[in-house]
Design brief:
Chain A: Belongs to the Mediator complex subunit 31 family. The complex is a heterodimer of chains A (131) and B (342). Chain A is built from six helices and no strands. Chain A is mostly helical and 131 residues long. The termini of chain A are far apart. Chain B has 342 residues and is mainly alpha-helical. Chain B is 69% helix and 0% strand. Chain B has 14 helices and no strands. Chain B starts with a helix and ends with a helix. Classes of the chains: A mainly alpha (131), B mainly alpha (342).
């Protein structure tokens, strides 16, 4: 990930437009901002990735925290429908707004617990809905 | 009122004065005494009237005060209302964000599409248990067990392929394992008796279910993240390329196009070179032919000179060039001769 310093003013404050056939969005490395941010917000669903970000001190960076706040537009329509990992991604985005969690996720134990509990829940919720 | 009372007092005083006067003269007059009594009575009446008057005045005063108080209260109320109105107008109305206020209409088809899109990331594939022991918990009856166990859904998916009615097919198989049904199907379906006779040995289970013990995550794995667009982005930065407005596909197309252009240019240059070579060769051949012709003519002239006196027939002079033409290959003959000599 990019390790150069970030500044709050450098990022656009408005969510990117929803893609359609006619849009001529500028591309970054072949992908639009919409695609990159969608991928990033879904990658946040992976506790190991968040742990990695924490270990690189990204979660202590006020600009990055502001970016996490900005990313909450994915929790609202019409962006919501593009998220294909809704369960973990949205919950993690919610948790990442809490400063305590941003510090705690540095712990490998918590990361591991999140992974295992998530795997367990993925199986069990389905069974509960059937029984 | 005052005048009336003053008149009453005056009358009483006068009557009294008349009476005293009459008494001092030692001629008390009864009439004067009656006048005094009458005047006094009138005075009392006037005083009573005064009392009523005073009471009324007091009452009026009180009412006035009351009116003033009420007026003040009204004013106060009105000013309070005015203030309140001003405050109300001044209060900025809370604008709810459009996301909360607006309804986003969607069709059932869109909802189902979304459900299908996310289902591969939210619902574990049949047979994947993520290490959770599904056999011990919730299900209460063997039927439930058959319906909810991962093997059951797996069996349904392979056995009920003929039609969408997986449930009915599974029910049939569970109750009466027909001979025609696939072996693996039969062995995978836990029958109601669950004697274990139809159960595959543990070590064979992975063979029939490729997803046995496969983990299921509800988030993108690290490998997927590493092969995604963000990784490409980072890779571009690492290579010192500014990713903004940089499209690898576009770049590839551009490079291919350049390559193609270069090839075309080379091809054109080659063709031109060949053309030029060909022209030069022809030129050389032409020049060689001319030289040869000139040489033969010279030889002939020399031969003519040797045969002095000989006279050419008129037809022979025209036939000379026709004979000269084949001689351009004279050197070939010489080559042949050389070869023969070799």
């Amino acid at each position: 990930m990019a390790s150069e310093p970030m500044s709050i003013g450098s990022s656009a404050q408005d969510p990117p437009p929803v893609p359609d056939a006619t849009s001529q969005e500028p591309k970054y490395g072949g992908h639009t901002r919409f695609e990159l941010e969608l991928e990033f917000v879904q990658a946040l669903g992976n506790p190991e990735y968040v742990n990695y970000l924490a270990s690189r001190k990204f979660l202590q960076n006020p600009a990055f925290v502001a970016y996490l706040d900005y990313l909450q537009y994915w929790t609202r329509p019409p962006y919501l429908q593009y998220i294909t990992y809704p369960t973990s991604c949205l919950k993690m985005l919610e948790l990442l707004q809490v400063e305590r969690f941003r510090k705690d996720i540095l712990s490998p134990n918590l990361t591991h617990a999140l992974v295992t509990e998530g795997m367990k829940a993925a199986v069990e919720w389905h069974r509960e809905s059937l029984s | 009122m005052d005048k009336k009372l003053d008149a009453s007092f005056e009358r009483v005083e006068k009557a009294l004065a008349v009476l005293i006067d009459s008494m001092t003269k030692f001629t008390p007059s009864e009439k004067a005494a009656n006048d005094v009594v009458k005047a006094e009575r009138e005075l009392f009446l006037g005083l009573e009237e005064l009392e009523v008057h005073q009471r009324n005045v007091a009452r009026i005063k009180q009412l006035k005060q009351e009116t003033e108080a009420l007026d003040a209260q009204t004013k106060q109320t009105i000013s309070a209302l005015w203030e309140m109105r001003k405050e109300l107008v001044a209060v900025a109305p809370t604008r709810f964000s459009p996301a909360k206020e607006e309804k986003y209409p969607f069709t059932t088809q869109q909802l189902l599409d979304y459900a299908r899109r996310i289902s591969r990331n939210t619902l574990p594939p049949p047979g994947v248990t993520n290490g959770v022991d599904l056999s011990t918990a919730a299900p209460t009856t063997p039927d439930d067990q058959a319906a909810t166990g991962p093997n059951a859904s797996f069996a349904t998916s392979i056995g009920g392929g003929g039609g969408g009615g997986g449930g009915s097919g599974q029910g049939t198989a569970a109750s009466t394992p027909a001979p025609g049904v696939q072996d693996s199907f039969v062995s995978q379906v836990p029958s109601q008796s669950q004697t274990g006779a139809t159960e595959l040995p543990v070590h064979l289970k992975p063979a029939v279910n490729p997803l046995e013990n496969a983990p299921f995550f509800t988030f993108p794995t690290i490998d997927r993240i590493r092969s995604g667009a963000l990784a490409q982005y980072q890779d571009l930065i690492n290579r010192g390329i500014d990713p903004k407005n940089y499209d690898p596909e576009e770049e590839e197309r551009r490079i291919k196009q350049e390559e193609q252009d270069r090839k075309d240019a080379e091809e054109r240059a080659r063709q031109e070179r060949e053309e030029q070579d060909r022209r030069m060769r022809e030129e050389r051949e032409r020049m060689a032919r001319e030289r040869e012709l000139a040489r033969q003519q010279q030889q002939q002239q020399e031969g003519g000179m040797d045969r002095r006196g000989s006279v050419l027939a008129p037809g022979q002079a025209g036939g000379q060039p026709a004979r000269a033409a084949p001689k351009q290959f004279t050197f070939l003959d010489e080559d042949d001769d050389d070869e023969d000599e070799d």
